[in-house]
Protein backbone atom coordinates (compact mmCIF):
# COMPACT_ATOMS: atom_id res chain seq x y z
CA UNK A 1 0.00 0.00 0.00
CA UNK A 2 1.38 3.41 -0.90
CA UNK A 3 0.77 6.37 1.42
CA UNK A 4 2.30 9.85 1.60
CA UNK A 5 3.91 11.69 4.47
CA UNK A 6 1.83 14.75 5.37
CA UNK A 7 2.78 17.98 7.11
CA UNK A 8 1.55 18.21 10.72
CA UNK A 9 2.79 21.46 12.26
CA UNK A 10 6.59 21.33 12.26
CA UNK A 11 6.53 17.54 11.88
CA UNK A 12 5.41 15.00 9.34
CA UNK A 13 3.01 12.14 9.85
CA UNK A 14 1.08 9.31 8.28
CA UNK A 15 -2.61 8.80 7.77
CA UNK A 16 -3.51 5.16 8.13
CA UNK A 17 -6.84 3.93 6.79
CA UNK A 18 -9.28 2.78 9.48
CA UNK A 19 -9.31 -0.74 8.02
CA UNK A 20 -5.51 -0.98 8.40
CA UNK A 21 -5.67 0.21 12.02
CA UNK A 22 -8.37 -2.33 12.83
CA UNK A 23 -6.64 -5.20 11.01
CA UNK A 24 -3.38 -4.50 12.89
CA UNK A 25 -5.19 -4.18 16.23
CA UNK A 26 -3.70 -0.74 16.88
CA UNK A 27 -4.92 1.33 19.83
CA UNK A 28 -4.25 4.85 21.12
CA UNK A 29 -0.83 3.86 22.51
CA UNK A 30 1.70 2.32 20.14
CA UNK A 31 5.17 0.79 20.28
CA UNK A 32 7.41 2.25 17.57
CA UNK A 33 10.63 0.51 16.50
CA UNK A 34 13.02 2.22 14.12
CA UNK A 35 15.63 0.37 12.05
CA UNK A 36 17.60 1.48 9.00
CA UNK A 37 15.10 1.81 6.18
CA UNK A 38 12.05 0.74 8.18
CA UNK A 39 9.65 1.66 10.97
CA UNK A 40 7.59 -0.97 12.76
CA UNK A 41 4.40 0.04 14.57
CA UNK A 42 2.77 -2.36 17.05
CA UNK A 43 0.07 -2.13 19.68
CA UNK A 44 1.65 -1.24 23.03
CA UNK A 45 2.22 -4.31 25.19
CA UNK A 46 0.15 -3.61 28.27
CA UNK A 47 2.21 -5.66 30.71
CA UNK A 48 0.20 -4.55 33.72
CA UNK A 49 -3.21 -4.91 32.10
CA UNK A 50 -5.66 -6.28 34.65
CA UNK A 51 -3.54 -5.48 37.71
CA UNK A 52 -6.08 -3.02 39.13
CA UNK A 53 -8.85 -5.60 38.89
CA UNK A 54 -6.65 -8.28 40.45
CA UNK A 55 -5.75 -5.96 43.34
CA UNK A 56 -9.42 -5.14 43.91
CA UNK A 57 -10.28 -8.86 43.93
CA UNK A 58 -7.44 -9.50 46.40
CA UNK A 59 -8.76 -6.75 48.66
CA UNK A 60 -12.34 -8.03 48.42
CA UNK A 61 -11.23 -11.55 49.42
CA UNK A 62 -9.21 -10.25 52.39
CA UNK A 63 -5.95 -11.60 51.03
CA UNK A 64 -4.19 -8.23 51.13
CA UNK A 65 -3.08 -8.28 54.78
CA UNK A 66 0.63 -7.59 54.63
CA UNK A 67 1.21 -7.60 58.41
CA UNK A 68 3.28 -10.77 58.23
CA UNK A 69 5.64 -9.23 55.66
CA UNK A 70 7.59 -7.57 58.47
CA UNK A 71 8.54 -10.94 59.93
CA UNK A 72 11.98 -12.36 59.14
CA UNK A 73 12.42 -16.08 58.58
CA UNK A 74 13.95 -17.49 61.73
CA UNK A 75 13.31 -14.25 63.64
CA UNK A 76 13.83 -14.85 67.35
CA UNK A 77 15.54 -18.20 66.75
CA UNK A 78 19.05 -16.88 67.35
CA UNK A 79 20.56 -16.53 70.81
Defining key terms:
alpha+beta, two-stranded antiparallel ribbon, single chain, 23% strand, 4 strands, 2 helices, 79 residues
Describe, in plain words, how this protein is organized in 3D.
This protein has 79 residues and is α+β, with helices and mostly antiparallel strands. It has helices spanning 18-24, 51-61, and strands at 6-8, 11-13, 30-35, 38-43. It has two helices and four strands, in the order ββαββα. The strands form two sheets. The protein has a two-stranded antiparallel sheet with strand order 1-2. A two-stranded antiparallel sheet has the order 3-4. Strand 3 (30-35) and strand 4 form a beta hairpin.
Summarize the topology.
Elements: E1 6-8, E2 11-13, H1 18-24, E3 30-35, E4 38-43, H2 51-61
Antiparallel strand pairs: 1-2, 3-4
What is shown here, in short?
The chain is an alpha+beta fold and 79 residues long.
- How many β-strands, per DSSP? 4
Describe the global form.
Answer: elongated
Helix percent reads 10-25%
Summarize the main sheet.
2 strands, antiparallel
Amino acid sequence: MRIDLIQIGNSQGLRLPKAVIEQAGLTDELDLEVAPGSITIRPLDKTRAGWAEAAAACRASGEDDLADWDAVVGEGDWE
